[in-house]
Amino acid sequence: MCGISAIASYKPVAEKLFQCLINLEYRGYDSCGMALFDQQSLKLRKNIGNVEEVGAKERFFEMSGNTGIAHTRWATHGGVSTENSHPHSSNDQNFVIVHNGIFSNYKTLRKSLKNKGYQFHSDTDTEVFANLLQEEFKKTPHVEQAFCQAIEHLQGSYAIAMITTHQPDVVFAVKKDSPLVLGINDGTNYVSSDINAFIAETNDTVIIDDEEYVIMTKDNFQVKRLVDGQEVKKKIIKVQWDRQTAQRGGFSHYMLKEIFDQPQTVRNALHIPEEEIGKIAQKFLDKKQSYFVGVGTTYYVAMIGTYLFSQYAGLHVPAISSDEFPSLIPTDQNNHVLFFSQSGETYDTRMAIRKAMEGGAATSAIVNVVGSSISQTVEDCIFQGSGPEICVVSTKAALSQIIILWQIALKVGELNGNLTAEQAHQFRENFNSFPETLETMINEESGFIRDLAAKTFHVRSWLFMGKGIYYPIALESALKMKEVTYLHAEGLPAGFLKHGTLAMVDDSMYCLFFLPYREDSELYHSTMNAIEEVKARNGKIIAFCTEDDKEAQEILDHYFIIPKISPELTPLLEIVLAQLFSYYSALHLGLNIDKPRNLAKSVTVG
Ligand code: G6P
After folding, report:
1. In the annotation, is 148 catalytic?
2. 298 C-alpha to center of ligand 1: Å?
3. Separation of alpha carbons 74 and 7, rounded Å
4. What is the whole-number distance in angstroms between the Cα of residue 142 and the centre of ligand 1?
5. What is the rounded distance in angstroms from the CA atom of residue 98 to the CA atom of residue 34?
6. In this protein, which residues make up the domain named SIS (predicted)?
7. 3-245 under CATH 3.40.718.10, yes or no
8. Is this model's pTM higher than 0.85 or not?
9. pLDDT in tens, 141-186
10. Backbone angles phi, psi at 120, to 5 degrees
11. Which residue's CA is minimally distant from atom 8 of ligand 1?
């Protein structure tokens, strides 16, 4: 899992290529490299470390040339080393490539190339393709043909960009099962794994489909079909993400910026066209049994969906984690599966979609990244319009998905008669003021949350608890805490505590409770029971509560104040406050918040 980029321009590209790498770094950050065509020869620099470190070490800025490729890596085949980092070149140094994906047959290819006398300098699967190009060019000294012939040998998934001394001003690219997009600008064109790479430069994008290849120069691009070399007329899409959203805008981390982006991303989610919501809502009525599927944070979004559907639509829609879906759920034409994915590239979710489709189920998705694999695979897709989410952990994308899901639940409820039109209208009205409430709360509470994190960041183990819809909120918040602080945080249903986990509670155990309003009486009282159970064992308790909830405040060690708004909005406010709490805890621990160790934003391998 990696990020690739390439640029052909009328002016030097090193600086822009480096910026593309920075923008793609969330896809992997153990090593990186760039290759540029510079006065008759190819210059290649690469090393281990994150983009900024390698950029400084290898002096990327000093590289000259108007055509180049770049890569940021998250090791899969071959450990983290300079040799294994990309770009990789052919033995004769005439072909240089970057690759995202896995060539599943690379061992066989490597063996046969070795038999022909080729030498290998890395343990990667990628290097075989560079030498295949050299080999095919020997047979057919025509770059485009050699490129297509070399691709014929490949099995697995790939997005590849290639430059060659034989046609120095041209970038060749191809994709199968890994994302690839073009950015079209005046005199400077881009190839990349993701629009994030170039969105600060151009909004004009072309999405490349499987089995298509690209020939790109500074002022032209052609997309052709691998099968017959015929040109495909591609649409240029204007992506509505703005430049500023793609940048950190004065915040110390992307995570913080993206938490503060949420009032706006919620507004965007509330403006998804009704017909898009309606189309997916109808699927829940047309099919006997539906499922929600996602993984990581999006699995918890799926779980939240289960509660929303039960409440508003009177339907039980189970949530399944993408990695478990293929072995757990037999699907047929009576099923509909709604998938969630920020990146639209997650391997586990793609495999779940494949399984659902094989069974004949109807599929739909809520996805953030335009042109991503998942958005192109499912029958109906809603683009959530949250803008680029750069921090590895998901905040604004997840909240937007919940808002969209909630609108679908309301629509289904209206259509199946579980809600009257007035009830649905009232709920929507309540939601319209949510972005402003969220804005005020983030601004007013963040100082307080920061102070509390300063007091608690030493805590090694947390229990995060909630009941009803607050249970998946607790799970997601615990995941956030684990991801950015590396501390143990376990999410569990508040009512479940006494059935085992309570044994762990003593005066060193810290518990964060997602407490509903007092008016939500049943949920409130059973959550309060769990709080009392912890209190009786001297455990430390932190909870969310309203200003007037003196009953709770008396027994809590610390509390976050939430404003009094309609009850269905409270869990969403709490999820955001918990994001801030994780952020500030990690900040006090001095960790790499935007790029936690061992994680990557888009996990495109199984
Ligand atoms: C990775 C990330 C998680 C993310 C999950 C699903 O594991 O580290 O933060 O929640 O993928 O990603 P998706 O893009 O499909 O929502």
Report:
1. no
2. 7
3. 22
4. 41
5. 9
6. 280-418, 448-596
7. no
8. no
9. 999 999 999 999 999 889 999 999 999 999 999 999 788 999 999 8
10. -120, 135
11. 601
